[in-house]
Amino acid sequence: MTATASRPGSTGTGRRAERFARPVLLAFLLVAAADLAGLIAGAETVHLIAKPLLMPLLAGYAALRGAPRLLVAALLFGWGGDVFLLADNDLAFLVGMGSFAVGHVCYLTLFGRGDGRGPAPMVTGGGYAVVLVVFLVLIWPDLPADLRIPLTGYSLLLTAMAWRAGVFGPYAAVGGALFLLSDALIATGIAEWPQAPAPDFWVMLTYIAAQALLALGVLGVSAQHKPGA
What we know:
By secondary structure, the protein is mainly alpha-helical. The protein is built from nine helices and no strands. The protein has helices spanning 3-6, 10-41, 44-64, 69-85, 90-111, 122-139, 145-164, 169-190, 199-224.
């Protein structure tokens, strides 16, 4: 018998917590829709209000669903990155990138625990490595000199996370790939490459989808490992 199962009323408490999860998820989806609509409409104030609410709501949903602490931590470090990246200066950008990096370490630690569906395929890892090298070679000359090394280190960590996410199933695998795409879009903006219309919309769309799919992938696998699942 597990410690959780041995506590009287613990199952009932878990069920009551899960009842609150659905409204929190709905709030997350509504805030995400508002943020994306604000970016399309050019309403900067909406984005400034909505963006900092996204990850706390998603982390709250995950916690209410009984998520591993590392998942909640990864989402909250993502929130730290979101907040710092709202400021338009290099120091805030580096601090925000560092917060995201710690979140990726949380994800990597979680993916390495052995609760997933097997080892990450080496072929997929090789594909990610090729994409990363080609992208860095192409973008390197256009990056500000003081950001080249930090962005390269961060890109290596993010690519490793995206590859390892596949051990938690297809949702997490797609989430990892979208996270990589979202940050690649940010990098092309820093390098002043040609951008699609409403570039911030595409960055946030891929980022929100990435974090949500990573959370759903982890929650799905974690539910299978619960007693009585």
